[in-house]
Amino acid sequence: MKYTLNVNGQSRSVDVASDTPLLWVLRDSLDLVGTKYGCGVGICGACTIHLNGVPTRACMTPVSTVGKMKVTTIEGLAAASGKLHPVQQAWSDLDVAQCGYCQAGQIMTAAALLKDNPKPNDEDIDGAMAGNLCRCATYMRIRAGIKLAAGLTTVGKGGAQ
Amino acid sequence: MSTPSLAQPVGRRDFLKLTGLAGGGFALAFYIRSGGEAAAADAAATGDFSPNAFVRIARTGAVTIVSKQPEMGQGVKTSLPMIIAEQLEVPWKDIAIEQGDFDEKKYGGQSAGGSQSTPSNYDNFHVLGATVRTMLVEAAAQTWGVPASECRAEKATVIHTSGKSLKYRQLVAKAATLPVPAKEAVTLKQPKDFTLLGTRISQFDTPKIVTGKSLFGIDIRLPGMLYAIYEKCPAFGGKVVSANLNEIKALPGVKDAFILEGNGKVKELVPGVAIIADSTWSAFSARKQLKIVWDEGKVVNESWESFLTQAKEKSTQPGGKTLRKDGDPDAALASAAKTVEAQYSYPFISHANLEPQNTTAHWHDGIMEIWSPIQIPSIGTGMVNRVLGIAPEKIKLHLSRAGGGFGRRIGADYLIEAAAIAQKVNAPVKLTWSREDDMRHDQYRPGGIHFLKGGVDAKGKVVAWKNHCFTFGEGGSPGSGGSLSGDEFPGRWIANYQADQTMFDTGWPMGPWRAPGSCVFAWVMHSFIDELAHAGGRDPLELRLELFGEKDEMPAGNAGATTKGKQAAASYNVARMRNVLKFAAEKAGWGKKKFAKGSGAGIAFHFSHRGFFAQVAEVTVSKDGQLKVDRFVTGVDIGAQVVNLSGAENQVEGSVIDALGVLMYQELNIERGRTVQSNFNDYPMIRITDAPTKIETHFLKTAFPTTGLGEPALPPVAPAICNAIFAATGKRVRQFPLSRTDLRWT
After folding, report:
1. Domain ranges in chain A?
2. Contact B658/A43, CB-based, under 8 Å?
3. Which of A126, B1, B25, B193 has its CA 20 to 30 A from that of B600?
């Protein structure tokens, strides 16, 4: 089946089976590999993208259901100028990642959280991020990264802390 | 000036000897000469200055450092080049890092495991960077006609005492004509002058990670590439009898389907059915239509629960191999003022790397070209050579960033599968394991059951200790980390001590899991020490210090004892452990806090991977039995120099939460020779909601060689937390995971 998708502000055409999860359309058809495969059943969060701004599991989203919704992936989160989204910048400043595999999903979920709730408290952060697994367990820095991106803290001496 | 060791009092010779023993070390001359010749030849063609295989300075001044170690999140792609950059005197922001391909003739050892990347390379990398800097200084001195001793390097510039200066880029052409100095002629920058090491540096790959650029093995994409899945028998080692290959080949997007026989080894090429398709989803979809008749073999008779029952039956009978016996434990138990008996058990667990196993391979022009996220590449290439009969020089392996290692990617089963599939496909092919493949065909951390008896005298001193450990093996050998050592603490420190071991032989694949052995034994030993402390009315810290006695060094084996096991060759630096234990206790304020019922503190320590770690947990358990770690304090002695403070803290924090997650949730059951669990719905992993409120990491700087951090922070975490749970509730946790213990209190 042929589909025309709105991905990161661009119109992209693909020809794939109708039940193909958006995850594999992004990765295999559109070469947008920042969105990651982790579990295939929507419980690890590595494939989190935004559909019309709402954080969504791409592994559970058949391409046939996307329609004209705006798809934003980690590759499209920064401004067109290349300026990083505040969450991406905070992740860089604090050296959040270890292996980094889950972080695109973490960043997409965190960006959606801050859009809805610009000044989240600790419970808000844990609640919003509970669906994203980090096998390296960088959770302390994920919390700190969100607070930094929200302007609730500043980068301390030497950055990553 | 000769080359001083950076880490006194262990001299350079001793250090190299140590690294050699670890299997990761190699002589510096190897870097400079072997690697250097090849590098110099490459550089000559481009006009770059590259006196060794690791550093390249272009005529534009662009500086590139090659990272030889596989990167899996432990941070070596950043931290090891930092050492070179420190000595080279080039600002970090001006350095590019390239991942080296697998080429041990060029780079020396390229294994990432056992927390050895740092200790195996630390001293050599200092010399490498300093050698290049020395040549640039010499080039400037010759240009000016002044002695090199009147010149110094700073920010990619050589400066003469007169104030005149030349940029490195202006010196590249001249430096490339100079002989590479002997290491004795190279002056090392000393720790007091370090400006980069010990600071917080964000990983070099961070910009790619936060913007989603192709980076990991699973991201590899080659022109004309096809996509593969590989279905194996759910029961370990099962063989394919038949499969509906013709039906599969007719499905949309499917290019081919075939059976691989396997090589008869459960951790190598396992039998299965490959489907080759035009996309991952076509392959995954076709897989749902597979109908395979399996020969499951004898493994269907093996289940965890039945082994657990057998262990309980056998625990009261004589038998097992005696690993160590000191004094007369039975008599000492009989005369002890108080005795404690306890059974501790931990299940098999999975590594659960978030990036499922994958490898891309292309069989072309008689070459097997491979892209793989792998920890010990030589295991992969060796297997390709042995199983597929491809000559070593015909195997080309590119190292991809790995989405987590934890020991899983020391196994190369997924790599050999991809290569075997590629041999039958006339195109590059990427094999992607599903999450279910990953969980059902891991090389698991072996479970274990310990039957302990201990005795204390009237003063609460530990006078007797007996342990019968039941462990698991495959093909007659214990699984990685499954074999207890007779020297495992507190073996050697208790006068009447016995450790026995019985192994259940299975057909189950097992492999190293983060801090193999240590990750479970530290929990058993430090939990039981805690039980004895409470039985004797002693403070848990004070009893541990008493156990150590007066000696500062405990030799391996100790005089006259019967001791076996792989750790038997290691002596134990008691002074370092005693110091870091006191250090952690002080940082935590041990013994100074009053806790309300339901809250409490616990302490534990462990030496592994050359690192000395002591930890204090403060926890609260709600009346309905929910655990919250309020504060977790780690004292770290990894020697003289933290390389990248950001990465170092991240490794410790990750280890603490990983260990907490294992304690709280992880349990992989094996029934009828196959796993019960298959994905994160039935194998939960720790999430942010359970992460501690506060984690503190304190580094105790000591005058010893710098060592690694991927593993040694993990082992004492679980016992520190379980001991804190006891202090809070009076409930002793003797089984993993935590859900098996009722922590409710009134």
Report:
1. 2-76, 86-149
2. no
3. A126
